[in-house]
C-alpha cells in the first residue's frame, strides 16, 4: 500500500475531534492555522474557541479594537501574529469584500500568510492540490525517507516541498493534508514515537537505520541574548499604578507594561535607588523593595529576560494612574500577567 493511503487510513481511525475540521470556512481555517503555528493543539484550542465566540466572522474581527485582539491573544506569544491577524482581517474586508482569495497565489498576498498557511487554506477550503509542510510534515517525511538535509535551510525548504508534492494524495487533498499533519503530531511524535504500532514502520528508513532521534536535521541558528528587565511597580496613596504601552518593532509591540528600566546586568536595591528617576518623574525619595529577590527568567526564542519587579511606594498622586483592579483590562505579556495575579497591595 502506498504512503499516502496508509496515512489516510490511519487518519480515519485516529483523528482528533477538532472544531476546524467540521468546516470549509476559510476564515475559521485561517484563524486555526495562525493560532496553531508553534502552538500545541491543547493550548491553542481554547484560544480558537474564544476568538470564534467573540469574532464569529472576519468582519467582526476587522471591526475590533487592536487592544481587544491582543488581550484575547495574551499568553500565546508571538504577538506580531495577532497584529497581522487583525490587519489581514481588515484587508479581506476592505479589499476583498469579506471573501478570502480562492487560489494559493491569491492567499499568499495576504499579510502574515506564507506558503504553509496558504497551502492549508487552499487545500482544505477549496480542494486545491497544494501540499502543506509544517514541523509535523517535515518530521514524517524526513524519517520515512531518511532525509538528512536540514529543514531550516533553503535547500531543505525546497527539497521537502517537492517531496511533499510528489507523495501527496491529490484526489483527497483536504483530508490528506490534515492527515499527515495529525500523523506527525500523534504517531510520529518528536520524542518517543510509537514505532512498533506505526503503519509506516515497514518502509521507514530512519527506523531501519536507527536514526529516529536524529531526524529531522536542523541548523542551530539561534543566538540567545540575555537582557535584564527591572519593572517599576509604582503604588500611590490611592493604590493606583502606572502602565505604558510598548512601541517600536521589538518584542511585545503595543502591549502594556509597568515602567521599565533595562540594565546591562542584575541590579540591587541601591543601584535602583540611584537610577529609578531615569524612567519615573517622582521628586521624593520613595520606599523601594523588590517583589522577587531572584530573577524570573522568561525565555523567548532569541532572548532570555532576567526580570525583577520592584515595588515603589510613593506619596505622590499619579495623574495618569491606573487602579490595580483595572489592570486585567489591558493586554500585557504573560510575564506581567503572572505578576498581576500574585501581587497583593
From TrEMBL:
Keyword Transmembrane helix: no
Organism of this sequence: Maribacter luteus
Annotated Pfam families: HHH, HhH-GPD, NUDIX_4
SUPFAM superfamilies: DNA-glycosylase, Nudix
BP term (GO), one: mismatch repair
Classification lineage: Bacteria, Pseudomonadati, Bacteroidota, Flavobacteriia, Flavobacteriales
Cofactors: [4Fe-4S] cluster
Gene3D superfamilies: Helix-hairpin-Helix base-excision DNA repair enzymes (C-terminal) (1.10.1670.10), Hypothetical protein, domain 2 (1.10.340.30), Nucleoside Triphosphate Pyrophosphohydrolase (3.90.79.10)
Catalysed reactions, as listed in the record: Hydrolyzes free adenine bases from 7,8-dihydro-8-oxoguanine:adenine mismatched double-stranded DNA, leaving an apurinic site
Cofactor binding note of this UniProt entry: Binds 1 [4Fe-4S] cluster.
Protein name: Adenine DNA glycosylase
Stretch forming the signal peptide: none
Keyword Protease: no
Keywords: 4Fe-4S, DNA damage, DNA repair, Glycosidase, Hydrolase, Iron, Iron-sulfur, Metal-binding
Amino acid at each position: 500500500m502506498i504512503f499516502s493511503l496508509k496515512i489516510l487510513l490511519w487518519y480515519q481511525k485516529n483523528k482528533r475531534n477538532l472544531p476546524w475540521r467540521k468546516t470549509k470556512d476559510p476564515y475559521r481555517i485561517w484563524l486555526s492555522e495562525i493560532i496553531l503555528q508553534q502552538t500545541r493543539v491543547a493550548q491553542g484550542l481554547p484560544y480558537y474557541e474564544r476568538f470564534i465566540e467573540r469574532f464569529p466572522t472576519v468582519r467582526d474581527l476587522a471591526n475590533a479594537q487592536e487592544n481587544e485582539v491582543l488581550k484575547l491573544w495574551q499568553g500565546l506569544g508571538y504577538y506580531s501574529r495577532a497584529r497581522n491577524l487583525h490587519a489581514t482581517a481588515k484587508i479581506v474586508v476592505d479589499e476583498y469584500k469579506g471573501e478570502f482569495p480562492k487560489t494559493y497565489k491569491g492567499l499568499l498576498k495576504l499579510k502574515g500568510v506564507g506558503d504553509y498557511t496558504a497551502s492549508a487554506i487552499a487545500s482544505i477550503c477549496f480542494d486545491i492540490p497544494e501540499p502543506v509542510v509544517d514541523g509535523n510534515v517535515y518530521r514524517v517525511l524526513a524519517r520515512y525517507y531518511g532525509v538528512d538535509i536540514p529543514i531550516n535551510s533553503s535547500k531543505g525548504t525546497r527539497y521537502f516541498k517537492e517531496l511533499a508534492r510528489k507523495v501527496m494524495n491529490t484526489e483527497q487533498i483536504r483530508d490528506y493534508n490534515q492527515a499527515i499533519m495529525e500523523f506527525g503530531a500523534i504517531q510520529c511524535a518528536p520524542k518517543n514515537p510509537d514505532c512498533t504500532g506505526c503503519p509506516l514502520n515497514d518502509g521507514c528508513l530512519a527506523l531501519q537505520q536507527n536514526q529516529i532521534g536524529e531526524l529531522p536535521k536542523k541548523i542551530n541558528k539561534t543566538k540567545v541574548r540575555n537582557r535584564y528587565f527591572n519593572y517599576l511597580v509604582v503604588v500611590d496613596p490611592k493604590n493606583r499604578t502606572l502602565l505604558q504601552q510598548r512601541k517600536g518593532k521589538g518584542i511585545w509591540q503595543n502591549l502594556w507594561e509597568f515602567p521599565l528600566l533595562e540594565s546591562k546586568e542584575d541590579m540591587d536595591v541601591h543601584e535602583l535607588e540611584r537610577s529609578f528617576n531615569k524612567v519615573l518623574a517622582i521628586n521624593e525619595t520613595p520606599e523601594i523593595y523588590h517583589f522577587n529577590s531572584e530573577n524570573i527568567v522568561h525565555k523567548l526564542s532569541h532572548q532570555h529576560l532576567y526580570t525583577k519587579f520592584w515595588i515603589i511606594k510613593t506619596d505622590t498622586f499619579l495623574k495618569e494612574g491606573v487602579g490595580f483592579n483595572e489592570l486585567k483590562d489591558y493586554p500585557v505579556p504573560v510575564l506581567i500577567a503572572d505578576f498581576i495575579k500574585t501581587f497583593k497591595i
